[in-house]
Amino acid sequence: MQERHFNLLCIFFLLAIPIAGLVLDEPYYITLATKVTILAIAGVGLNLALGYGGLISFGHAAFFGVGGYVAGIIASHALNYDPILEWPFLIEGTTQMLILWPLAIVISAFFALIIGLLSLRTNGVYFIMITLAFAQMIYYFAISWPSYGGEDGLSVYLRSSFPGLNTMDGLTFFGICFVWLMFAVWLSSRMTNSGFGLALQASKQNAVRVAAVGIKPFKVQLIAFVLSGAITGLAGALYTDLNRFVSPSVLSWHTSGEIMIFVILGGVARLYGPLVGAAVFIVLEQTLGGVTENWQFWLGLILIIVVLFARGGVIGLLTKEVRNE
Amino acid sequence: MSITLFIEQVLNGLQFGFMLFLMSAGLTLVFGVMGLINLAHGSFYMIGAFAAAAIASWTGSFWLGLLASLMAAAIAGALVEMVVIRRLYKRDHLDQVLATFALILLFSEATRWLFGAFPLYLDVPAILSGSLTLPMGIVYSKYRLFIIIVGILIAIGLFLLISKTRLGVRIRAGESDREMIAALGVNISKLYTIVFALGAALAGLAGALIGSIQSVEVGMGEPVLILAFVVIVIGGIGSIKGALIGALLVGLTDTLGRFLLPALFGAFLDPASATSIGSAIASMLIYILMAAVLIYRPSGLYGKMA
């Protein structure tokens, strides 16, 4: 099977599951499909840095969590009729997605800019560890800062609104997330095939040569890292709306590890890798969790087998498309 | 604030630092010699603690428990190296991170299955319980002092092992040129298994020692693992000396930060917000330290320049 056809099949399945949920009157299917879609968006974000740029970030939970907290904090202010800022000028909270999304994107991009500026000075294992350290910094801050729930997290009891749509309807909200996923995939496909994307992939292979032809690898990598953080931040905002709850656990290193697993499980630097990875992960979690209490043991075993014997992830395994990596 | 209280906190910081050193020494050796990132190192810490708790409650002897922690972690380390880790040396860091992340899931669930979800407790032996009066009237826990002494002894032992013994020569040679020492007839895969088991045993010992202060439970290794990574990154990956300096630096910064910062903020804020801001910043302090070190020296304090 060609990767192109496989990708179409993935989209078909992603759309079929919530519709099946509607027909069979199983709203849980819709929630699961929405969860997969949102996590896939986070993975598409990470894939840009990790897959195409070779920047192994072990701290993308930071952007996922920052996006989530931005959406959660602003919405909770609006729901409690408690202005965010009264002085020097009044800023009210809002539950309008059209305002929450750009804010989540911009603020997580800003975090990615700061973290990227400092982290990109290092490389290899040091890069993995410094991104992890920054994420942990934000994690511990969220735990010990009491204003927004601290360790207990922050409840947002109503899903944010979108003009003309009823977002409380599961299928509608799935639709919104699906459109975002398609947009993120389209964006990363356009980017990686552009001159910028070529420079990025070249920087992964040989930064010295890229510098020799007059392109600054640092700048290219920083832009990719910021975009990557922004997309993951948007996913975080959607995730808060899905759960109507945000807690420091979205900032924990487990989240970073899981987003990374989606990307690797599906296939690194493949457009639909994060979607396949997130879907396989969630399906495994659900089915194993139903069969045995110790499902994490079997999940771990499957992951090890995938790493050791299925290089190129699930897509690589199924499409038999050879890649030089 | 009294000076005795301050010295007590410095001792706590040293105790924490030496415990981190036991954890990081193995991690940094494995990285230096084999070039492997091992997220599952925290699992050996957990295995050591559980083995110590189980054997100590079965035999009634704390010392047998400590011995068991070393043995159990070393055996687990050797087994994991031979079955899984060995296949990862030639892979990139991404595969190593994912596979060892998966190993954490395996070990945690297996331990939960064997010992149940409830925490176990490990009692301090009678000879080390209670406290000791040090010069200047400082009263300090005997057991924590014991951890500091064990840490110092192991640090000395490791330096001697690396610099004076044949095994140490091979480890250092393996760090600088693995093809060459393989060509000279050293059984490199056996060497790797030994280094990995040695690192695992030290982590297991750390787990057993801390198990008597805190509870022994599944997932106890993960917070320590992240701290150990901070330590080796600050010290420079691959350097035992760096691990020692980094561990003490992190231990002291964390302990003193939690102790001093709330008091510092209390000087100009009301007590409630001083405590919350102070503790929020104190919990971030070691990560700020790590970021500062990496910005100043991108390969850590004693790391080789890439």
How would you explain this protein's 3D organization?
The complex is a heterodimer of chains A (325) and B (306). Helices cover 71% and strands 1% of the residues of chain A. Chain A has 325 residues and is mainly alpha-helical. Chain A has a two-stranded antiparallel sheet. The longest helix of chain A has 27 residues. Chain B has 306 residues and is an all-alpha fold. Chain B has one domain. In chain B, 75% of the residues lie in helices and 3% in strands. Chain B has eleven helices and two strands; from the N terminus they run H-H-H-H-E-E-H-H-H-H-H-H-H. In chain B, strands 1-2 form a two-stranded antiparallel ribbon. In chain B, strand 1 and strand 2 form a beta hairpin. Classes of the chains: A mainly alpha (325), B mainly alpha (306). At the A-B interface, helix 5, helix 10 and helix 12 of A face helix 4, helix 9 and helix 11 of B.
Question: What's the overall geometry of chain A?
Answer: globular
Beta-strand share of residues of chain A: under 5%
Based on the structure, what is the oligomeric state of the protein chains?
Answer: heterodimer
The residue ranges of chain B in which pLDDT falls below 50 over 5 or more consecutive positions are none
SSE string of chain A, helices as H and strands as E: HHHHHEHHHHEHHHH
User: Roughly how many Å is the radius of gyration of chain B?
Assistant: 20 Å
- Compute the number of helices of chain A: 13
Q: Which class do the helix and strand fractions of chain A yield?
A: mainly alpha
In terms of DSSP E residues, the strand content of chain B is: under 5%
Number of strands of chain B: 2
